[in-house]
Specification:
By secondary structure, the protein is an all-alpha fold. The protein has two domains: 48 residues, Arc Repressor Mutant, subunit A (Orthogonal Bundle); 119 residues. It has ten helices and no strands.
Length: 181
């Protein structure tokens, strides 16, 4: 009689996600994953043909986590790109390993940076529409300038070089919007 499968694909991906959050993608190895999931490496490679295939599912889970995180915040201002920027910077500060995996990885599994931040809810598209509605002649260009600034600030949190409060961050983003506009 065949043994009943006790470790599911969901168990494996959840264990991999826990390692990713705590230690980063470099530490998501078959041995560590097996230990975290409470199994041998056999169930991992029964479900996934290799660790790259697992990384793709892990990337999708991390992107979903970011979307849920972003959706969990009430918009604090009508100034375009400020909410998006504030939440992105806050995510980088609170979830450094996930941020690095999603937004600093060379392999984004076919997704552009724009796809990642726009998400399935159209986060960026809404902000560009809002800027246009507020009279911005070239909202796409404005977004590019804001994004370079926002992404740089978020990356600074990874090295501990960003220490502005949320209120200071929001004001800085508002000031940047006005300056770039």
């Amino acid at each position: 009689m065949a043994r009943k499968e006790t470790i599911t694909k969901n168990d494996i991906i959840n264990a991999a996600f826990a390692i990713l959050q705590e230690e980063g993608i470099e530490q998501v190895t078959a041995r560590k994953l097996a230990a975290k999931a409470g199994c041998s490496t056999q169930p991992i490679f029964r479900v996934y043909k290799n660790m790259e295939e697992l990384a793709e599912d892990l990337f999708a889970k991390a992107c979903d986590f970011f979307q849920e995180y972003y959706s969990g915040f009430r918009k604090q201002t009508v100034t375009p790109f400020v909410h998006l920027g504030n939440i992105y910077i806050k995510f980088a500060a609170e979830h450094k390993k996930l941020f690095a995996f999603i937004f600093l990885s060379e392999n984004r599994f076919g997704r552009s940076m724009y796809d990642l931040i726009n998400g399935s809810d159209g986060n960026v598209s809404r902000e560009i529409q809002s800027a246009t509605a507020q009279g911005c002649a070239n909202a796409g260009n404005l977004f590019t300038k804001m994004w370079i600034f926002i992404h740089g600030a978020a990356c600074m949190t990874l090295t501990g070089d960003y220490d502005l409060s949320e209120e200071e961050t929001i004001q800085m983003l508002k000031d940047s919007y006005q300056a770039y506009r």
